[in-house]
Amino acid sequence: MLAPEVLDPVLTAADQMLRTLFAPARTRRTPDLPPDPPELTAWERRQAAGLMRVNHAGEIAAQGLYRGQAALSRCAETRAFLERAAAEEADHLAWCETRLHELGSHPSRLNPLWYLASFGLGAAAALLGDAVSLGFMTETEAQVEGHLDRHLDRLPAADARSRRIVELMKSEEAAHGQAARARGAAELPPPIPSLMRLAARLMTGSAYWL
Length: 210
Known about the structure:
It is built from seven helices and no strands. By secondary structure, the chain is an all-alpha fold.
């Protein structure tokens, strides 16, 4: 039988995963959003839904990454920082999920894969030490910020509601990256950011359709 100090974190991680993947996402903050424009065409709604599904999948991955990092972090202060970031990302998850429903669409069916892969990556980063783990966070947020910029270019101009959600997310993602850098994030060696971008392209390309 596993000792409580081993069993408790395992059960906590399993509970967080199941809630993230299968329970309705909840937000602690209700953003001030413009009304849903009724004049969106069928194509515009499909385009917005595909992009917001990608953003939702990205937030699923962020939950997995930060929870994996927090689970194996060696420093209580870093663990608390990662858990706060995960809580803010959970708000983003809820905003994207709500918007998907408003657009008459659904989250990515591959979300369990994104979560598990990201959790494993986060746990592996944490095993390499807090500086490396925070380096992963900094690089992740930098890539996400660029990704959200591209989505603002692709979202229908009339869909001010989706655009506002993405703008809010972009601002907070940048803040997470800056906070991780201020805490002593290590610079990752060149192959790792490239591999992260490759994995992100696989996720975004799949999540748009699935």
